[in-house]
Amino acid sequence: MAKIIMVCCAIFAFIEVARTANVTCYTCESSKDPGCKDPFSSTNLATNSSCDACVKAKIGSVVARGCSAGGETGDRCFTILGTGTCICSTNLCNGSSHVTVTMGTIMGSALYLMSKIFY
Fold this sequence. Notes:
This protein is of the alpha+beta class. The chain has one domain (2-118). It is built from two helices and six strands; from the N terminus they run αββββββα. The protein has a six-stranded antiparallel beta sheet with strand order 2-1-4-3-6-5, with helices on one face. A hairpin with a 2-residue loop joins β5 and β6 (83-88). It comes from Dreissena polymorpha (Zebra mussel). Residues 1-20 form the signal peptide. Keywords: Glycoprotein, Signal. This is Protein quiver. InterPro entries: QVR-like, Sleep_regulator.
C-alpha cells in the first residue's frame, strides 16, 4: 500500500499545479478521502480552481484526482503498467469514473521510471 501511495504522490509531483486559472478540479486521494474512490462522491471533497486541466489516476484500488499544468488541449486516457491516467479540460471533469486524457508521453515516461525505481 505504501508503494501505491508513493507512486500516486510521484505522479502528481510530475503534474505541477497550474499557474493560470481556467479549470476547477477535484483534489483528493482515495486512501485519505473515501469519497474519492470509484464510485465517486463529491461530498466534502476539496477543489482547486487554478488548473490548466484535471487529472485522475488509478493504481489498483487507489484513486487520485488533481490538477495538471502544461497547457494540454484535447481529452484522452491511457494505461501503462497497470496505472490508468486521464486528463480532461472542463470544470470538475475528473469526478467521473471515465475521464479523458492528454500528456501520454510525459506520464508514460514518468510511470516507467517510477516502476523501475519503486519495484
